[in-house]
Amino acid sequence: MALPMSFRTGIGRKLSHELQRTIEIFNNINLFKNLEELHLAFRDVVDLTDPLLLEKLNKVDCKLKKLQIIFWAKHKFLNGSPNESDLKIKEEPRKWLFTLNNFFYSKEIASLSLDHYSEVEYESDLIFEKFEFWEMFVNANLSKLTNLSLSSHDLDLKLIDISKLHKLTIRTDIANDHFAIEIARLYFDNPNLRISWWPRFTRPYDFYSFGFIENIEMFTPDYFQIISCQWPLYFFKSTEISVKKGESLINHSKTPKTLHIILKNEYSIEELFEMDLIQDGYVCNLVLNIINEHEQLQFSPQNKY
Description:
Layout: E1 2-5, H1 17-27, E2 37-42, H2 51-54, E3 66-72, E4 75-77, H3 84-87, H4 100-103, E5 111-117, E6 126-128, H5 134-137, E7 147-152, E8 167-172, H6 177-184, H7 186-189, E9 194-199, H8 209-219, E10 226-229, E11 240-244, E12 258-264, H9 269-274, H10 285-294
Parallel strand pairs: 1-2, 2-3, 3-5, 5-7, 7-8, 8-9, 9-10, 10-12
Antiparallel strand pairs: 4-6, 11-12
């Protein structure tokens, strides 16, 4: 079941007819008592820190086994055009309210996909605040979770428990050696984890991202202590990463102090295009020049703002 949630709201705003309808759709999910798979997209800029909005949403009590959510991160609206004085105003960080624990029965979820964005394609009076995935997981019971997919601009693994996962899929807008090392360290906490790392070269906040995740799951090979990395390998100094053991969630006496992890690439940029996993014009500017230096197939400048 796929639901595109399209609405925009803020504290103190009157509920529009469109917003009322969206709330009704969300609250009607519970009518599907045997629902096991849900794809949920908040298509427009919706403030999931707004208590006036979230108090109108009921908790989804269906015993979902697969859940995918596409959403906007924390943001606030400025009055008029942003200026230097507006940006210097200090406010308390907004609390993330749309959590798995508060709005979903999470105990049966085996496959979870979270895809968040912190930029828009048009001129706006929006300012985004820092959001981290752990804020979605607070107090959530995910005892049956085996497959996790996280999509964001930067690598975001802070406080994410991967110790019992079978597969972890990561999508980012940028790649570098620092990210590669942080990903490789995950094998200290879960030596059997299957990891894949893909570029997120797609239109910011596209409802059809549901299909991208499914394609990635289908095309990802299954390796042991090898990162399936579909970022071009010229982004990294070496395809072999040596990481020393630091603090980990699980301490096993037989775990080696140093791991040597390989980055293995299966698909070229051209093949990713053919697999509909790249949309031209939506490559982060930080990596655009690097790709165009190495590829015969040239990318267009980033299509935003």
